[in-house]
Structures are given as structure tokens and as C-alpha cells.
Amino acid sequence: MTARRTILLTGASGVVGRSILRENGPSGPRIIAATHSAPVPEAREAPLALDLCADRFGLDADSYAALAAEVDVVIHSAGLTEWGLPAERYEPINIEGTRRVAEFAERSGAVVHFMSTAFVAALAPDAPVPLSEDNVCVNYIRSKHRAEQVLRDSGLPHTVFRPTNLIGDSTTGWTSRGQIVQLMSDWLGRGRAPYVPVHPGIRMDFVPQDLLSQAVLRAIELGDDEGEFWVTYGPEAMDVETCLHVLAKHAADRGRALTLPPLVDADGIDADALARTAPMTRSYLSVLRDVSEVTRCCGGVLPTSMPELRERYGVPRVDDTAAYLASLEYAAEHLG
Questions:
Q1: Looking at residue 126, what DSSP letter applies?
Q2: Which pairs from 33-39 meet CB under 8 Å and 24+ separation?
Q3: Is the pLDDT of residue 316 over 60?
Q4: Residue 1: its pLDDT value, please?
Q5: Strand, helix or coil at 76?
Q6: Checking phi first, is residue 79 left (phi over 0); if not, alpha (psi -120 to 50) or beta?
Q7: What's the distance, CA 291 to chain centroid?
Q8: What is the pLDDT of residues 131-169, one digit of tens each?
Q9: Contact, 117 vs 141, CB < 8 A?
Q10: Mean pLDDT of 10-33
């Protein structure tokens, strides 16, 4: 597969998009970096302003046709990833935006590589327990689940990559901006948590963003046009106790002594007692509880394709605790 492809990368200014651009070497495919308005420092050519919430991405008919004639592959990474929003907020970009990507791919004859989430496993018919309707993640997860269905219904050649929560680069810890892992870790690492609500037996599954980017680019290099890949550590992922010990090491490296908070069964938290805590503490504890619930609904250990990703796509074997520590160090130095 030696032909040099032209890729349309949606969401190029996001965490995944910028990581993909960094991982794409000088001899790699041409990437047209599509963004709504945010800058894309890693782009090698001027980013293309597209609106995935509009017909023809907001382009006139001629410009849309010209873009379709150029593109061989679409990496669809654009989307609303913030949790806790009403279901209708996710519809325009996560679902209808994916529909427009499918329409574009049909016109251009392009393969689509879609960035979903490993949390869709919580919606599986055989999930051990149903996901609560008031879970902070539920509307986001459902939007990604529906977007996957849009691609399946389209009949287009496509792959689906389902990463768990992403952390920074596996070696340097670099990320274009902090996400939920860095935010929650900073709060925990400063000793703010009176306890950590978890469901027994769950894993803290964090994956370095460069592993996802390398897998996607390798799939394109090989010309793959089908497959569903769980970009997670699965049973290799650290347990909660190990995660807290990494946080304690990070705090010690920065001159702080962290007393590890006790682990509390998330199902046993008294709602009235939680309601009486300070608003920020209540918010953080609620997010920890809800993310733990998602993992429990996925079986406690997320599905994983990591062995296949290592064998087929050459994704390196990276120790998740070392990568997590590097991500914490980068965040402390650069993200405030």
C-alpha cells in the first residue's frame, strides 16, 4: 500500500486530532486539518474551517465537490466530549455530524476511521447492570453509540476505535490540553478527597493518546477498511490502589505528602451525606462515582484489543503507571 493518501481529519484542534498530527511523520500521508475555529499548531498546511453541524460542512457546492475529489480517507474525531449535558446538546455534532461525514465519505469514496469511546460497552445488551439514567456520562455515551450505528447503517467501509480515558504522550506526558483524568488527578493529588467512591474490582484504565494515534495511522497505512478496536488496557490496567500510589509518588516528587483517602463502595454512599458536602467536593465525588459505575457496567474490566493492536499495528507495549506518572508531571508543569 504505497499510494500517498490524503486524509480529512475532523476535530483537528482537539486532543486526539493534534496527537494524530504530531504522530504523522514527514513521509506520512497528507492530512487536511479541519477545525471549526480553534488553532491547530501541528498542521503542516493551513487548517480548513468546516462546520460539521451544517450541510456540506458549511461549504458552497463547488468547494465541497473539490474537497471530496481530494480526500481518500476521513479520520472523524470531531465531537462534543463534555459530560453532563442534556441529550439534545450532543445531537448536532456527535450524531448528525457523523451523518454528514458519512455523506461526504460516500461522495468521495473515502474510508472512515471513527473515534468513539470504550464506554459504549456499558450499553451492551449483556451488560451486568444497566447504566443509571442520571449518570453524568450517559448522554455522551449514547451519542457515540448512535454515531457508530449511523456508520453501520451507511454501509460505508469504516473502522471504529474505542479509546478509554486518554492521558498524555506515553513518554513525555504531552497533551494539547487537560482532560478529565488530569483534572480529577490534580484534585485527588492535593488531598482534597475525603474518600474515593469505587465499585469493587474495577480497573483504572487510562491510555496514552499516542498509542491511539499510532494505531489509527497504521490502519490507514495498511489500507484497513473494517474493524472495531477497543483502545484500552483491559485486564492489564492498574487497580485503584495502584492509581492512588502513583498519585502519592507524584505528590512526593513535588514536595507534598499525600495521605491516601479510603476507598468506599460507591453503592454505599449516603446521598444525604453527599449532599451536605461542599459543592466542589460533591461534584468531584459524584463524577468519580459515576465513572466507576460506567466501568462496573462494562464488567469492571473494559474490553480490550490491545494484543491485536500490538501485533497488527505495532503499538508499543507501554506500562500504564509510568505513562500516567509522566502525564501527571507534564500537567503539573504545563497545564497549571
A1: T
A2: 33/9, 34/8, 34/9, 34/10, 34/78, 35/11, 36/78, 38/13, 39/13
A3: yes
A4: 44
A5: strand
A6: left
A7: 14
A8: 999 999 999 999 999 999 999 999 999 999 999 999 999
A9: yes
A10: 96
